[in-house]
Structures are given as C-alpha cells and as structure tokens.
Amino acid sequence: MSKSKVALLGDVADWTTDLHRQELDERWNAKLIALKDFVSEFGAMPRYKTFASEREHSLGVWLHNQHQRRTELKLQDWRLEALNAAIPGWTSKM
C-alpha cells in the first residue's frame, strides 16, 4: 500500500499503522527483487565471503541473514513464503 493511502487510513477511527514496519517491509521486498535479478543474471546464489562485487556481497549477507532467521524460527511466514516462491531451493537443510 502506498504511503499516501496509509496516511489517509490514519484518519480512520481505530486504524493504526506502523510506518516504520512498512518501510522495513518495502526494503526487504526490494532486496528480494535484487536477489531474484542476481540469480537470474548469474545463475547462482550470491556469496557473502568470497564475493566478486559489492553487489554480490550485500545480497550474500542479506541472504545469509535470512538463512539464520529461518533456522532460529524468526523469519516471518510471509517472508519465508516469498523467498520460497521467488527462489525455489534457496534454503540449506535444517
């Protein structure tokens, strides 16, 4: 939902929004899109240790963090579903 629509909903009685959470979710979605683009372009997952570019490193660290959150059962369900749909096989075995 756009920020302008969220702002308008703020005027509705009993409606609460968390703009910070919305911004975090938008940034997460942008990283997911960047990850899809990277995998499509290179045919491989980005590396966070032996990376070839800053782009790969950034995406590799982000993906590593998603792995950690999933393992710790801290990755939100919608994010896990989005990752599974966007990049089948992205996970290591638990």
TrEMBL record:
Q: Which Pfam families match?
A: HA
Q: Which segments constitute the Helicase-associated domain?
A: 25-85
State the superkingdom: Bacteria
Q: What is this protein called?
A: Helicase-associated domain-containing protein
